[in-house]
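Annotators were shown the component list below and the corresponding predicted structure, then asked to write short factual statements about the assembly.
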Amino acid sequence: MRERMRGFKELIGVEEALEKLRNAITRRITDSERVSLLSAIGRICGEDLHAPQDYPPYDRSAVDGYAVIAEDTFGASPMNPIKLKVIAKLEAGAEVSELPEIRRGESVEISTGAPIPRGATAVIPVEDVEKVGGGIEIRGQVYPGQNISRRGEDFKLGEIILRKGELIRPWHIGVAASFGITELTVLRRPKVAILSTGDELAEMGEEPGAGHIYNSTKPMLASALSVLGCDIIDLGISRDDVNKISEKIAEGVRKGDLVIVTGGTSIGVRDLVPEAISKIGEVIVHGLAIRPGKPAGFGVVGEKPVFMLSGFPVAALIQFRVLVTPAIEYLLGCKFDPCPRVRGRLTRRVASPPGIRSFVRVRVLRTASGELVVEPLRLTGSGMLSTLTRGNGLLIVPEELEGYEEGDDVEVELLSPIIESEVNKR
Amino acid sequence: MRERMRGFKELIGVEEALEKLRNAITRRITDSERVSLLSAIGRICGEDLHAPQDYPPYDRSAVDGYAVIAEDTFGASPMNPIKLKVIAKLEAGAEVSELPEIRRGESVEISTGAPIPRGATAVIPVEDVEKVGGGIEIRGQVYPGQNISRRGEDFKLGEIILRKGELIRPWHIGVAASFGITELTVLRRPKVAILSTGDELAEMGEEPGAGHIYNSTKPMLASALSVLGCDIIDLGISRDDVNKISEKIAEGVRKGDLVIVTGGTSIGVRDLVPEAISKIGEVIVHGLAIRPGKPAGFGVVGEKPVFMLSGFPVAALIQFRVLVTPAIEYLLGCKFDPCPRVRGRLTRRVASPPGIRSFVRVRVLRTASGELVVEPLRLTGSGMLSTLTRGNGLLIVPEELEGYEEGDDVEVELLSPIIESEVNKR
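Structure shown to annotators:
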């Protein structure tokens, strides 16, 4: 599925570009570091972590109740309660080497998590028991093994509990803590070098000269990268000069795992970045079958990927989602969380050229009646940041469609939560 | 929709509990701080931010091409090209007070983002133009206004560009940067105090005494809170003593915006936390119609919410999602991103008591044929962390259903990405 476009040899489809990108990323990040358990949250696991022992480490009760010999409960019911003696009480954390032993007709009061006394084969929940005198009356039956968590049932000694490449989540922290683990091995953060090109750009915080505009794409990309756990190397702004751009890219390749160059890639007045890459490496993709963001691509310099993104923020953000996020996944051997998606009714027709994957900025809102509707935003130019701040979603039109009709039920990637009509709020 | 359960007066449905929670949170976080633009990412905006000027600040070109008088292009086509003189060249960032003026028959070469010269009414894209001699031949028509981004089209002076309570995203950073804004006002982070109760608990990093088990719930909740941008106040572990628990809760209420107490809430052997709250405040909900996690609830002490969560990590995590995440949203007046959801075919019947919202841990995987299937994990006891580390989703059975049948098409909250069958990987 290719489309010719004047100036670009040809536009390359997203899937083909990603295939080339995977092949181009030959140097994965493998260096790791040890960090404290709590600071490992959100990092990428650097080595398979094995359970250092069985968990639970012994048979234990899954409920609050009474440990019994299951046979003693057979036939018990609210109409036919069975009496048992209570010979001891066990709390979670009781010493496992000194457990009491029960015989027929006896029971042990037991807390959730406490070790099962010797001889007991089940636990009857406290709800099915009435205290009477020095003992209990049980009003239900349990089968052997019921309400007992077996040693090693949760994790067996040596089993992998966290895999290399997994994003570390709160429950991984919980599992590690339950084994007494206080540090984890995580991959070091990817280092991403960003170079802006453009004679017209003023850096954030500078007083812009006459006719200069603020560089908004770099801070936007830097913050998107920080959300993905990357460290930023700021290569500054290069004036529109092929040799200077080449030098800066070479510096980025030395210092970082990946280089992003913004601006200077559209066919027309200037086309400096592909030229600058070609001087010291190879351009692999230039011209991507997406809208907005066609003049995107990447090359390889010194075995490291160098991305050419637009200088215009909306196009750059779409290109970033399409190319850079997967590149960081390939570098780390991980998978980031997918974007939440919702379906809703499209309020207006949306057109897309065949062979192009279009990213239409939309507003997803819930009407007073509870229906989800998808409103395409007016699109004029890839610089329209307001389409992102006013909208909250991206409607992606795949290459094989020429758009969607008004009233179509469409799926949308949510960039921020659904907008609730005033009636539904409180 | 209520279910009686022995020991709890009655179980309260999730929606009713959330309604009570909203009403209980009377002190929102309003203190804010100024942070640099890049460190504002992921924080909650502390005040409405208004556009300090029109954006774009002047009419500018939306494409690379030639600024023209639209009428000069009427009738032009590849078969009938029209010749125009090129009198100047304008780059993005050109000085707006010194723009050239064009007359009929003239054009100005122009870059995307460059100001429109005086007299021009449209821009013809470079793709529709051929350079010939000192001028150009145009092969297409443009209507007045075409390919021009009007002053204020993206943002008008004074318009709100970022609302109080919004979670700050990369594009907000981009918008702020494009106006030259270098700092943002964000709400301070919520302070959450966590107290663990339980005679059997050993703190992370301690050498556990005989019969002690590691506190895994606290580090898990602390990391879940850090993902939501909260600062943690660790109140340590309190032994099972009502007065000590009350004292610690009072300390948490003094130091934090919200207090979480884990353990000691199940009806049975112990019921200390509700008692400890009642001594210094009021228990509002105790017993929630969810599974796992029934013995959850909250109270109010000194106008601050105090949550009673399970000491068992899986139950605590479900309770956290159901009660604490919304509480932090209410405190901040914000909305966090929804969890991604997918639909798939259920491989096994799942039962749920009527009136109860069940959270079934599942594995969502894509088969070799590309179908998404949802496999419920074996569930025994709320302590089974392996159901979270082996699984990647939660199937939520609503109160009005008694479960789902094998083969049903069900919607699942994804906790981590879909598991791809080996055949689909590469």
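Statements collected:
1. The helical segments of chain A are 14-24, 170-178, 217-227, 242-255, 272-280, 313-332, 386-390.
2. The longest helix of chain A spans residues 313-332.
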